[in-house]
Amino acid sequence: MVLYGPRCEWLRMLRARHPSPMGEKPTRREAIQTLAAGALVQLPAPYRPQSFSESQFRLVSILVDHIIPPSDTPGAAAAGVDRYIDQELAARSEQKTRFLAGLALLERDGFGALSPSQQIELLTRYSADPGQAGEFFRLLKDLTVDGYYGSEIGLVRELGYRGNAFLREFPGCTHPEHR
Q: Mind spelling out the 3-state secondary structure of 91-140?
């Protein structure tokens, strides 16, 4: 039997230590071990959005990274916030309708053709708008913050959450303007 790949190297080492009594034909145990090792190495399938088209999903990835950009910690897209929003909207049809209407507004305003700084300017205008654009921006921002700080990247890496631990003292906010 000819074996290739990293998991087969593991099997070769196993056989060197424990040769099969049947010679080259693998035993049932060896076959099960090989299948189990293969199951551990398989890569996940690419994500398929439930609420968005592929182009809308890419747009959501750009939007969430504008709201929480990468810094010393990964940004919102790296934390999977785009997937979080997709899954949340799949479960909430009213929010999905409002969100898709907001994406249509962005597309109408030529968001994809703008430079990143111009995109941020447009989002800033949306944030101040009392109408549909402002409602969309608030929904986008709320979902982004919820998804980011509910992820391992936001909760553990950025906020330093260590689980339910006893704190002898809670320092509170250290910003001077909040004292």
A: HCHHHHHHHHHHHHHHHHCCHHHCCHHHHHHHHHHHHHCCCHHHHHHHHH
SS3 133: helix
This prediction has a pTM of 0.69
Cβ pair 34, 3 in contact under 8 A: no
Angle between helices 93-108 and 81-91 (to 10 degrees): 130
d(CA 48, CA 87): 11
Say if CB 76 and CB 144 are below 8 A apart.
yes
Per-residue pLDDT of the chain (179 residues; tens, 9 = 90+): 444 555 556 556 656 665 555 556 667 777 777 766 665 555 677 889 999 999 999 999 999 999 999 999 899 999 999 999 999 999 999 999 999 999 999 999 999 999 999 999 999 999 999 999 999 999 999 999 999 999 999 888 888 888 887 778 877 888 888 77
Rounded to whole angstroms, the Cα distance separating 44 from 84 reads 17
In this structure, are residues 111 and 119 in contact, taking their beta carbons and an 8 Å threshold? Answer: yes
Interatomic CA distance for residues 7 and 26, integer angstroms: 15
Comparing CA positions, the residue from 52, 39, 160 lying closest to residue 100 is: 52
Residue among 47, 49, 65 nearest 57 (CA): 49
